[in-house]
């Protein structure tokens, strides 16, 4: 099975959907932030390993605590995933903190600041002409 095959893409989507439901509704660890999102999932073609990219809307410390909480609940999450998704093998989970959404928001704010400052610079120069 190729890495980008349709079957692998469907498995990734199904595992991502089920992981987000398990994290949102099943895990009761207080370290896991309520605004936790599963951004993407990559399951290897042999279904042995799974990288889950997790985004947390909060501080960096809350993100690290959420990852620690997810790692401690990995056994429960994997068992629930095996129960909900019918796969030949249930993949071993690896949770990775993904800060790309936060990075994008920060870049958007910086771009907005630059456009505002350039607009205000143009409006100041226009009456002088």
Describe the model.
It is a single chain. With 129 residues, this protein is of the alpha+beta class. The protein has one domain: GMP Synthetase, Chain A, domain 3 (2-Layer Sandwich). The chain is 57% helix and 17% strand. It has helices at residues 6-25, 60-72, 74-84, 100-128, and strands at 36-43, 49-56, 92-97. It has a 3-stranded mixed beta sheet, with helices on both faces. Strand 1 and strand 2 form a beta hairpin. Helix 1 (6-25) crosses helix 3 (74-84).
Provide a compact summary of the structure.
This protein is of the alpha+beta class and 129 residues long. The chain has helices at residues 6-25, 60-72, 74-84, 100-128, and strands spanning 36-43, 49-56, 92-97.
Q: What structural keywords apply?
A:
129 residues; alpha+beta; GMP Synthetase, Chain A, domain 3; three-stranded mixed sheet; 4 helices; 57% helix; elongated
């Amino acid at each position: 099975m190729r890495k980008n095959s349709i079957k692998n893409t469907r498995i990734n989507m199904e595992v991502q959907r089920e992981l987000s439901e398990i994290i949102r509704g099943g895990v009761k660890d207080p370290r896991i932030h309520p605004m936790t999102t599963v951004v993407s999932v990559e399951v290897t073609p042999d279904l042995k390993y799974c990288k889950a990219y997790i985004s947390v809307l909060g501080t960096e410390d809350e993100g690290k605590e959420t990852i620690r909480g997810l790692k401690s609940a990995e056994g429960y999450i994997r068992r629930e995933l095996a129960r909900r998704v019918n796969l030949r093998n249930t993949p071993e989970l690896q949770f990775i903190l993904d800060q790309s959404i936060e990075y994008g928001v920060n870049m958007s704010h910086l771009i907005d600041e630059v456009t505002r400052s350039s607009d205000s610079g143009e409006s100041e120069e226009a009456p002088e002409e």
